[in-house]
Amino acid sequence: MNEPAANTIYARATAPGRAALAVIRLSGPDCLAALSALGAGCPPPRQASVRRLADPESGRLLDEALVIYFTAPHSYTGEDVLELHLHGGEAVVASILDALARQPQCRAAAPGEFTRRAVLQGKLDLTRAEAVADLIDAETTAQQHQALGQLGGNLRDLFDGWRADLHEALAHLEADLEFADEDLPGGIGRAALARLPALRAAVDAYIGDARGLRVREGVRVALLGAPNVGKSSLLNRLAGRNAAIVSARAGTTRDIIEVAMTLAGVPVTLVDTAGLRAAGDDIEREGVRRALAAAREADIRVLVTAPDATEDADKGIPAEHGDLPPAAFLLKNKADLQPIDTGANTNIETDSDADNIYSVSALTGAGIDGFVTALSALIQHRYASSGSAVLTRQRHQTILTEVRAGLDRAIDAEARGLELAAEDLRLAARALGRLTGAVDVEALLDIVFADFCIGK
Ligand code: GDP
Fold first, then answer.
1. How many CA atoms lie within 13 Å of 314's alpha carbon, on the beta-carbon side?
2. What is the location of CATH 1.20.120.430 in the chain?
3. Fold designation for 135-209+391-448
4. Which residue has better confidence, 348 or 431?
5. Measured between alpha carbons, how far is 184 from 263 in angstroms, rounded to an integer?
6. Lowest mean pLDDT, pick from 34-38, 59-63, 391-395, 442-446
């Protein structure tokens, strides 16, 4: 790879748009040279100093800024870093960026490049770099807390702890192999192997836990039920705006409508599905197919019924979809109507607990608050973490699956011999190292930094 000539990078660290302040950050060996080109002298490290910044060619004043200098390695990136706290006007920021662009020792930073340098300089491991991205993207309190926990190193500590356990087991296995003929305490290799199932169980518990991913990406809640029971009306009621078209004609909602909201600090996507009905044209059947797919993918299913329902909700479910997971809530909508027993009902399973049944009216709003409180409590219970480490990316799940496979092989290597077990443990430890970037960091950077913004 060709290393670009200029090794000092700069970028606006704050969002564009009129604001009181804007921060431009520089990192690299030529920070101070760039500042000097702007006509400002070297500020004392880690002290906010007012500096007049001028155009390098014309000497025209561009801004009076607050400048902070961090000397390597005591900075975010581990390199020399300069922060220019400018007045936030677009003209000011553009003129400074333009002046920096004309400096041969500087170049504009690529997305995530500051954090990438921090990783390469050993300031952050990969899990903490991921946490930086998550903290910037955090829109809800649960996302914020999760990212802060990870930035604090909870995932790194977990992975490093497992890796240390593996290394210890490996050391014992190797000692056993090396000194097999000598007077070592008997079977330390086998004793090490005997400790692996516990480690595998610990890893397993994390692989099966999707909480962190849900908090990052949103929990999907699907409303399902027969046509005209009021799913769209409920979605509108819950979203507080007219997101779905409400119509008295059965089968209007032919596609999937989604509304984003926050419950218990967790991002939630509420999905309104087409009514489940047996009859209908091709388009409607496609709607039902999508509704079922959405219901299956959802994390939480809410089954809606109404006293005037004319169809059984499950009549529309083709046989191959009969295995829909149970609904967490049953909403008896149109509570404002006199119950009309049409005989229509549903056989879709709910977690059969009377606590999960709510009588509501999308029309009057009655009962809606109670349902939202219960839904929030369920989401809080299931997804909001207590600050303990959770896997937050598919990358973590994938690598841990590899680790588990290595442990599986090592555990049943007893019969095949300790040497093979040692090799499996080495592979598992190596995979764990890829989670934090302790091994193969260069190869992982592009994956981890794919969704970073410029200026980070
Ligand atoms: P969907 O097909 O399940 O999405 O049902 P819609 O939301 O389109 O509603 C079907 C019909 O039922 C519309 O005429 C709504 O105005 C009506 N409706 C929905 N919720 C209620 C309710 O709580 N009470 C009454 N009386 N009518 C409702």
1. 16
2. 135-209+391-448
3. Four Helix Bundle (Hemerythrin (Met), subunit A) (1.20.120)
4. 431
5. 59
6. 442-446
Average confidence (pLDDT) over 371-395: 89
pLDDT value of residue 308: 82
pLDDT number for residue 319 = 47
Ligand 1: nearest atom to the Cα of 335: 23
Measure the CA–CA gap between 160 and 40, rounded to whole angstroms: 45
Query: Is residue 274's pLDDT more than 90?
Result: no
CB 262 within 8 A of CB 291: no
Residue type, 141: T
pLDDT at 244 (0 to 100) = 57
Written as six digits, the tokens of 423 are: 């090799």
Nearest CA to ligand 1 atom 9: 230
State in Å: Cα 246 to ligand 1 middle.
7
Q: Which two tokens stand for residue 333?
A: 């909508």
Q: How far apart are CA 400 and CA 147, in angstroms?
A: 20
**CATH 3.40.50.300 intervals, the chain:** 214-383
CATH 3.30.1360.120 domain extents, the chain: 8-123
Residue 365 pLDDT more than 60? yes
**232 Cα: distance to centroid of ligand 1 (angstroms):** 7
Give the pLDDT confidence score for residue 367 in this predicted structure: 93
401 Cβ neighbours under 8 A, 6+ residues apart: 207
For the chain, first and last CA: distance in Å? 22
Fold type of domain 214-383 = Rossmann fold (3.40.50)
Residue 396 contacts by C-beta under 8 Å, 6 or more apart in sequence?
127, 155, 206, 435
Instruction: Please give the distance, rounded to the nearest whole angstrom, from the Cα atom of residue 250 to the centre of ligand 1.
Output: 10
Write down the CATH superfamily of domain 8-123.
Probable tRNA modification gtpase trme; domain 1 (3.30.1360.120)
Q: Is 407 helix (H, G, I), strand (E, B) or coil?
A: helix
Ligand 1: residues with CB < 6 A are: 227-233, 246-248, 252-253, 275, 333-334, 336-337, 361-363
Between 86 and 347, the more confident residue is: 86
Scan for tokens 């431009």, then name that residue. Answer: 24
Is 106 strand, coil or helix?
A: strand
Mean pLDDT (whole number) for 256-270 = 87
